[in-house]
């Protein structure tokens, strides 16, 4: 891969990482700590939503983001012809 293409690939990868980490930050720190009082006014399945995000939701968000990252990187790898299959 040419150096210019390699930098484009890396730049796109970093863009995905920043966006996904921002989403994870909002899911774990934002919903689990910062907005917990507002979210606790909502109940889902008998649990306060802020409590749920602090205990379970941030983990689910993280796992979903891993799958999203894999899909995005597979697409990016094919776009830059660095895929493994």
Automatic annotation (TrEMBL):
Keyword Transmembrane: yes
Domain of life: Bacteria
Keywords: Membrane, Transmembrane, Transmembrane helix
Stored InterPro entries: Na_symporter_ssu (IPR019886)
Transmembrane segments: 16-39, 51-70
The Sodium symporter small subunit domain, residue ranges: 7-83
Name assigned to this protein: Sodium symporter small subunit domain-containing protein
Organism for this UniProt entry: Chloroherpeton thalassium (strain ATCC 35110 / GB-78)
């Amino acid at each position: 891969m040419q150096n210019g293409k390699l930098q484009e690939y890396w730049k796109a990868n970093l863009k995905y990482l920043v966006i996904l980490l921002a989403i994870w930050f909002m899911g774990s720190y934002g919903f689990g700590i910062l907005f917990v009082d507002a979210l606790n006014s909502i109940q889902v399945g008998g649990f306060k939503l802020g409590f749920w995000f602090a205990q379970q939701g941030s983990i689910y968000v993280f796992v979903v983001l891993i799958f999203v990252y894999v899909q995005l990187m597979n697409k990016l790898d094919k776009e830059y012809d660095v895929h493994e299959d």
